[in-house]
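User: What would this chain look like folded?
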Amino acid sequence: QVQLVESGGGLVQAGGSLTLSCAASGSIFSINTMGWYRQAPGKQRELVATVTSVGSTNYADSVKGRFTISRDNAKNTVYLQMNSLKPEDTAIYYCKTNIVQTSGTRQYWGQGTQVTVSS
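Assistant: Here's the prediction, encoded as structure tokens.
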């Protein structure tokens, strides 16, 4: 079994910053791509950013230049540094990981953390 624990969400004013983290623990051999997704009320879940095991990153156009994804492989943790936050960034943020286990590779989602940006 694998557990993903997210932290770092909260309420912030427009223009402010937050850093999210997601730590994986449990039966882990290695971790491939790690990523952040978000879902705003009434909208579909969307990709925010991903980072591969060798550090290659990908961002949604809406967050390029404002958000930075990174990972600490020793800690099985992925981070999302969010700067210059806008009200439209308000959403529940979920981390997703592709974890290699002895039984194969499986996808895991975190429980979600609320980010609210006030204008």
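The mean pLDDT is 96. If you want, I can go into more detail on any region.
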